Amino acid sequence: MLFPAYRPRRLRKNEGIRTLTRETRLSVEELVYPLFVVPGEKVKEEIPSMPGIFRYSVDEAVNEVKEIKDLGIQAILIFGIPERKDEYGSEAYDENGIVQRALRRIREKVEDVVLITDVCMCEYTSHGHCGIIEKGNVHNDKTLKYLGKIALSHAKAGADIVAPSDMMDGRVGFIREMLDKNGFENIAIMSYSAKYASAFYGPFREAAYSTPQFGDRRGYQMDPSNIREALREIAMDIEEGADIVMVKPALSYLDVIRAVREEFDHPVAAYNVSGEYSMVKAAGKLGWIDESQVAMEILTSIKRAGADIIITYFAKEIAKTLNSYQR
Ligand code: PBG
From the alpha carbon of 200, which atom of ligand 1 is closest? Predict the structure, then answer.
């Protein structure tokens, strides 16, 4: 294909032609909106490092979910911020814990919304680590029992999908068995399979008050340098029964998303995390970039890399933009 016979610019001539020949299209249906729930009533507090993202009490969360559904977004990912934290993160598996209450209320008040829950301990433990501490270290196998209890309590309260984000070895198989034994064989598992020890989680930890009180998470989350290891993690989770696998963060890991897409058939989710959101918001505020265009470009790149599902704090804004295209 040589110039002048072939002129790539012909297909860029106007918006109609560009739209017709576009290779990657984002759609509202593939977006998942993360939601932070807190105790109390009538609470809607903005998270300082994440403009436009709020912590909601359960009553307010219901209104928010209705709004999300009206925009065409079908799924939310719920994170809970508990009343009390302790060494064992016991509010995480309490049937009257914050996530469990939110699940029941949203299920009752909003029709047909897919409820996904983050299954982890770091928001609930006094030390801020994702499991049970023994001799200064997160004990893998002891933590599994707690993760199983958390996942089961979410299923009982009405979750459709549980999403373990702790990065303990063997947790997908353990949770699958626990759910099946208790009659929840139809509850799906979306595993945070390739979750990296990333500095991009900073704003989330402020939002959820979940910064580790000592050390860091590098003993369980993955080293950002590794991609072959990500494929091993994904393969393991699929063998253990994961229904959807996830790569997290997304933007600095597009190559990982692509590799996972090529190697496996399972639905692939990508988590466009808090730091990726906040960077765009901050630069937008300074007038250095056009934040809505940059957001669209980032999400398109995540989809182009191979993600089927995108979890993003931009979901509402992007949904509004996408809906405005359909005149
Ligand atoms: C819980 C969890 C984290 C995120 C999702 N689940 C934080 C962490 O691992 O420290 C981060 C999400 C984000 O940054 O948007 N383990």
Answer: 14
